[in-house]
Amino acid sequence: MTQKLHIVGGGMAGSEAAWQAAEMGVDVVIHEMRPKVGTFAHQTGNLAEMVCSNSFRSDDDEQNAVGLLHWEMRAANGLIMKTADAHRLPAGGALAVDRDPFAEAVTAKLRSHPRIEITGDEVTTLPDDGHWIFATGPLTSATLGEAIRAETGAESLAFFDAIAPIVYADSIDMSKAWMQSRYDKGETEEERTAYLNCPMDKDQYEAFIDALLAADKTEFHEGETAGYFDGCLPIEVMSERGRETLRHGPMKPVGLTNPHQPDVKPHAVVQLRRDNALGTLFNIVGFQTKMKYGAQTEVFRMIPGLENASFARLGGIHRNTFINSPTLLDVQMRLKSKPNIRFAGQITGVEGYVESAAMGLLAGRLAAAEILGLDLPEIPKDSAMGALIHHITGGAEAKTFQPMNVNFGLFRPVDGLKGGRRGRKDRYKAYTDRAKAEWTCWLEQS
Predict the structure, then answer these.
(1) Which of 13, 187, 217, 272 is in Cβ range 3.0-4.6 Å of 196 for a Cys bridge?
(2) pLDDT at position 160
(3) Last residue within a domain, chosen from 297, 319, 341
């Protein structure tokens, strides 16, 4: 077998796809243009660099769909999850990682694999032959984006993704802030105190909202529209939807008790999550923003405990592109007009590190099986993997297709279970039990 699999893009999806294919016995070439050709969001040339948050979100594999996706990736010998587990940080019930060591470890693992070659060239066309996976992510280069549009005959859809700011821990006033995970969630004391909390009373909150609304924002380029993904809205956009929106979103005060004033219930709470193993950096949870840098420092220093905050990184805004996968891709993630090409990751219209890596895992296995002449069974629709790939390759409405996180709304109902909030716990457990059984069976047959 001499056919190679070429993977364009070394992010979460490309890295996982390369690992899966190589482990199946296929020679792989990763084409990663960084650092030779940079993007304004990436800071290194490492593979699997985490640009926005350092969180893989919930790790609960019985009551949360993304936690179930974690479980399925671990069961499939996933490189991204294995490396995340090795570099995890306390984050309550979530899986957060030390981002730089994580990316360095993924890069080292792929570089040392005997079947993987990494090149620094930029791919700007869609090849007519060979086996290819395009996993260029939301920051696909303009030249390649034009090639994709020319091939598909349709305009790429676009939305804007925002980056949350990172604060130096030693600049936070702990006489006002405290450490506590919401509802004290976590099995260890470290997990139960994984988040740093900054409380606001009503007057402070109202002044903060006024400042958000009045702050200078990044201007859009001509012809761009603000089609934000709802799971990653800038805080100022949320505040424009109503003055109470933030207080019922990332600034909700529930499940927390301020030890400095235990008898006073905060009107709102800003949470920060540890961003590195040393505990020297904290990112402000849910605080993606498109405010200009000067405005950010002014507004964020209105938060009690952050009056003298020093920022390791301020928030940002960038354009993310994705294809209309329900129209363009077949059930094996192949481009219908060029079946030698698969797409994977965020460019397919999934949202989030975990979902991106999961689609890379599937694309890598599907491509390797095709090269090796193997006949893989159909990906089970009742698994988290199956629910997600089914959604992007045909389950979603093409006319209104938007980026999607994995969620139980994508799963087929389980007969005989109650609907509504009261039946949710039993329903979610049934979804995860069924998914684990189906996914385990698929892995055994693959």
Answers:
(1) 272
(2) 65
(3) 319
